[in-house]
Write a structure and sequence with these properties.
By secondary structure, the chain is α+β, with helices and mostly antiparallel strands. The protein has a single domain (3-165), classed as Gcn5-related N-acetyltransferase (GNAT) (Aminopeptidase). 29% of the residues lie in helices and 33% in strands. It has helices spanning 3-8, 28-38, 45-53, 99-113, 128-136; strands at residues 18-22, 57-64, 70-79, 82-90, 118-123, 140-149, 154-162. It has a seven-stranded mixed beta sheet, sandwiched between helices. It is globular, with a radius of gyration of 16 Å. It starts with a helix and ends in a 12-residue tail after the last strand.
Length: 174
């Protein structure tokens, strides 16, 4: 195992054995169940199907071992030296246990390994749990999109993270 990946194990949730792996079509029923309980305006199944096929997408899941039940998922887009966090959700029974943090860290490390230097995302101001997570991982506010979440008229806070200087990822070898 590369040294960088062993460094990431310090972030693994205690008391859970997880496999972080690319998701497949067979996982979509579980993805949709988590999506529906996580968001007021959930993505449609067709969006996840498109993510699985898109050449710029990296769709990962946190699967419990040995059962391989999906606990969380992460959708990233990798374009040149940037990774966009599209979607992250954790099953309600596994929230506040470090599953989302671990999945995001592993996903960002893989994105960095593939050449990403900047991570970006949008988050609702009202999603305080997600904002705390992102802030704790080095994301910082760079702007707002007024009325971005149209169904509620809520703004989006734009966050960036410099992956080359991130304190939660191992140093980049010169």
């Amino acid at each position: 195992m590369p040294e960088s990946y062993s460094h990431l194990e310090q972030w693994a949730p205690r008391g859970l054995r997880l496999l972080i792996a690319p998701l497949k079509a067979r996982h979509l029923d579980a993805v949709m169940a988590i999506e529906r309980v996580s968001f007021t305006t959930p993505w449609q199944r067709s969006l996840f199907e498109a993510e699985l096929r898109h050449r710029h997408a990296l769709v990962l899941g946190a699967l419990s071992l040995p059962s391989e039940i999906l606990l969380a998922y992460l959708c990233l887009w990798l374009v040149l030296d940037e990774v966009q966090v599209q979607n992250l959700a954790v099953h309600p029974a596994y929230r506040d246990r470090g599953v989302g943090r671990y999945l995001l860290i592993k996903g960002l490390e893989e994105a960095r390994r593939r050449g990403a230097r900047l991570a970006t995302l949008e988050v609702r101001p009202s999603n305080t749990a997600a904002r705390r997570l992102y802030n704790s991982l080095g994301f910082f506010e760079v702007g707002r999109r007024p009325g971005y979440y149209q169904s509620e008229g809520e703004d989006a806070i734009l966050l960036d993270c410099n992956l080359a200087k991130s304190r939660f990822l191992p140093p980049i070898a010169d």
